[in-house]
Write a structure and sequence with these properties.
Number of strands: 17
Number of helices: 14
Helix content: 25-40%
CATH architecture: Alpha-Beta Barrel
CATH topology: TIM Barrel
CATH class: Alpha Beta
Number of domains: 1
Shape: globular
Strand order of the largest sheet: 5-6-10-11-12-13
Strand content: 15-25%
Largest sheet: 6 strands, parallel
Distance between the termini: 39 Å
Length: 388
C-alpha cells in the first residue's frame, strides 16, 4: 500500500440544487459527498432558484451558500437569450467563474430559473433558450471579459426532429442522436473562433462530439473540453444493470463512443474530468424511462474513478491529478484547496456510504482500487473567484 498525498480535486461541473430544490440536494449534503471523495472545490451551475443571471443574483446566491458550504465553491452565471453585455459584465465583476449557456433550456419567468424545452413553446411564461445567435450577439463582450463560456452542447433542432416515443434505451438513443452534440460543438466553436471568446464544452459523450472538439482545436479555436466518469466507464449495455438511474443528458452511448472519449482524454484533446453531479429524488428517477428525470449524482466518486481510469488505461494513476485538479485550476483561475490522502491499494465501491441526498447513481457497484483516507482542508468552504 502507498498513501498518495494529492491536491484536493476541483469539480468544475456540479448542480448543487441549492437554493431552490433542497429535496434533491442542498449545499450541506453536496459538501459532505464532495469532501468524502476528496473534492474540496465545487463549481456550481446556475440552474437553481433564482438563477444567478445578474451580479446581484450571483451575490445573493453566494451569501446563501456561504452558510452551508463545507468545501470551497465557485459559481457559474447564467447566460440567457435576453442577456446583455452589461449583465455579463456585472456577473464577471461579482465573481462568476464563467457563463453557462443551456442550449434547449428556456427561462421560466415565474419560477426564475431554467427549464428543459427542446421542442420550443408558445408559453408566454417562457423566454426562448439561448442560441448560436445569442452567443454571436454577445461574442465581443464575452471575448473582452475573458471568462469561459460553458455550453450544454446538444442542438435543439436535431433533438426536435429526432423526438419519438421512448420505451427502451435503444429508443432513447435514437431520440437523442450523437449528431446533436457534434453539431452544437461545431457551431459554438465557429462563433467562439470568430469572436475569440473562451468556449468550454462540458460533458463530451460521443465519438462525433470528440471529432468536432479535435477539429475545433486544429483550427485554433480557444476551446477547452470536459468529460465525466460515466462516459469513461459506462456504455448502453449498462442499462440492464442501472435502469433509469443512468438516464442523463447527454446520454451514455455505445462502447465505441466510450472508447473515443477515453482516447481523447488520454491524448489531451479533452482537458478535464468533472461529474455533472445532478441529483433527483427517488420518485423522479424511479419511473418509466421516458418520464424519468435526467441526471445522476457523482461528486463523491470523481477522484477514485479518475485515478482508476488513469492507472488502468494511462499506465500512471497520477495522470488523474492533471484532469481533476491542475487543469481545472488553470482553466477556471482557482487554486486547489488543501490536500487529500488516498490509499492506492484499497477498494471503493461506488454507492457504498454515499452522502448525497440522492445516494443512488449511475456508477453504483463499480469498484475502484483507491480509497480516500483523509482530507486536509478547512471545514468551512469559502467563495472562490477567478484570479485572472
Amino acid at each position: 500500500m502507498t498513501v498518495l498525498r494529492l491536491p484536493g480535486a476541483i469539480d468544475g461541473h456540479v448542480h448543487g440544487r441549492d437554493p431552490g430544490y433542497p429535496e434533491k440536494e442542498d449545499f450541506a449534503s453536496l459538501s459532505a459527498a464532495a469532501r468524502a471523495g476528496g473534492v474540496t472545490t465545487v463549481l456550481d451551475m446556475p440552474n437553481n432558484v433564482p438563477a444567478p443571471d445578474t451580479g446581484e443574483a450571483l451575490t445573493l446566491k453566494a451569501a446563501f451558500v456561504a452558510e452551508r458550504a463545507g468545501v470551497n465553491y465557485g459559481l457559474w452565471g447564467l447566460l440567457r437569450s435576453s442577456s446583455t453585455s452589461d449583465q455579463l459584465r456585472g456577473l464577471a465583476e461579482a465573481g462568476a467563474i464563467g457563463f453557462k449557456a443551456y442550449l434547449g433550456y428556456a427561462y421560466r419567468f415565474s419560477a426564475r430559473t431554467v427549464t428543459y424545452t427542446p421542442g420550443g413553446s408558445a408559453d408566454e411564461d417562457l423566454e426562448p433558450p439561448p442560441s448560436y445567435e445569442t452567443l454571436d450577439r454577445l461574442g465581443p463582450a464575452l471575448a473582452s471579459l475573458g471568462l469561459p463560456v460553458a455550453v450544454h452542447a446538444e442542438d435543439p433542432a436535431i433533438l426536435r426532429e429526432a423526438a419519438r416515443p421512448v420505451g427502451s434505451y435503444a429508443d432513447l438513443l435514437e431520440s437523442r442522436p450523437a449528431e446533436a452534440e457534434a453539431t452544437a460543438i461545431r457551431r459554438c466553436a465557429e462563433v467562439a473562433r470568430r469572436h475569440g471568446f473562451r468556449l468550454h464544452v462540458v460533458h463530451v459523450a460521443s465519438a462525433l462530439g470528440v471529432g468536432e472538439v479535435r477539429r475545433a482545436r486544429a483550427a485554433d479555436t480557444p476551446l477547452t473540453a470536459e468529460t465525466c466518469p460515466q462516459y469513461l466507464w459506462l456504455c448502453d449495455a449498462d442499462f440492464e444493470r442501472a435502469g433509469p438511474w443512468m438516464k442523463m443528458y447527454p446520454l451514455i452511448r455505445t462502447a465505441s463512443d466510450r472508447e473515443a472519449v477515453r482516447a481523447a482524454l488520454l491524448d489531451g484533446v479533452i482537458d478535464t474530468v468533472g461529474t455533472d453531479h445532478a441529483p433527483h429524488t427517488a420518485a423522479e428517477k424511479d419511473r418509466p424511462l421516458e418520464a424519468a428525470h435526467a441526471g445522476s449524482p457523482g461528486v463523491q466518486w470523481l477522484y477514485v474513478a479518475a485515478l482508476e481510469f488513469a492507472r488502468r488505461f494511462g499506465g500512471d494513476a497520477l495522470l488523474a491529478v492533471r484532469w481533476v485538479a491542475e487543469r481545472p485550476a488553470e482553466i477556471f483561475g482557482v487554486s486547489p484547496n488543501g490536500w487529500v490522502e488516498i490509499d492506492d491499494a484499497a477498494v471503493t465501491v461506488a454507492g457504498d456510504g454515499a452522502l448525497s441526498r440522492q445516494p443512488r447513481s449511475a456508477l453504483d457497484g463499480l469498484e475502484f482500487g483507491f480509497r480516500v483516507l483523509r482530507v486536509d482542508a478547512p471545514p468551512a468552504g469559502r467563495w472562490v473567484r477567478p484570479t485572472g
